Amino acid sequence: MNDKEIVRNIKSWDWSLFFNTVDKLGSQFNQASWRMMKGEVICTALEICSNEKAKYVDEVGYDLVVGEIKIEVKTEKKIIKNNFATKSIQLKNTRGEIQQFEKSFDYLLIANTSPRYISALTDWDRVFDHHVLTGDQIQCRLEKDDLILLTEKEGISIEQTDISKKESLKNYMKDGIKGWIREINNKG
Fold first, then answer.
1. HEC sequence for the chain
2. Cα dihedral sign for 160, 81, 90, 147?
3. What are phi and psi of 115, to 5 degrees?
4. CATH 3.30.565 matches 3-159
5. Per-residue pLDDT in tens (0 to 9) along the chain, 188 residues
6. How far apart are CA 61 and CA 126, in angstroms?
7. Exposure class string for 72-102: b at 16+ Cβ within 10 A, else e
8. Which residues make beta-bridge pairs with 78?
9. Is the distance from CB of 44 to CB of 31 less than 8 angstroms?
């Protein structure tokens, strides 16, 4: 797949469903012990929104594959600012190791998880050109010209609704864990 095909493919994803999912997820998984699950939900939503053209693989250095194309996903409340540049994006936490930044993905997909709901894509070369080593992290900050918007610049409009306790994914998962443990107890 060439650059134009990959961009066309990702632009065709159901961004409305993705941003509705992100909105409904809200802050449910913001606590430290749940944060990994937030990434799981977001990347699974991208897989479903892509009509499963993208596969969520959760590999070191990338999250999705579209054919042979590796895509790293970074989301944050306002990762894409009003001027369409990005905040500083943490690409890697080196945890005191020697800092190396080797190619692990072909594209970086970024998306806001709060209004203005927009997403964008850039390639490895642009990320590499803008990466900086900061203490125990490798970060980059991208400019408007480095990004290809995947949604309209106005963003995706969604109906803002509060999620009830009954609709909470976190509560659903907690109930599932309790049921699973009870099932183990009943078989023992």
1. CCHHHHHHHHHCCCHHHHHHHHHHHCCCCCCHHHHHHHHHHHHHHHHHHCCCCCEEEEECCEEEEECCEEEEEEEECCCECCCCCECCEEEEECCCCCCCCCCCCCEEEEEECCCCECEEEEEHHHHHHHEEEECCEEEECCCHHHCEECCCCCCECCCCCCCCHHHCHHHHHHHHHHHHHHHHHHHC
2. positive
3. -55, 140
4. no
5. 788 999 999 999 999 999 999 999 988 888 988 888 999 999 999 999 999 999 999 999 999 999 999 999 999 999 999 999 999 999 987 666 666 788 999 999 999 999 999 999 999 999 999 999 887 888 999 999 999 999 999 999 987 666 665 678 988 889 999 999 899 988 76
6. 16
7. bbbbeeebbeeebebbebebbeeeeeeeeee
8. none
9. no
Whole-model pTM over 0.85: yes
Q: How many residues does the chain have?
A: 188
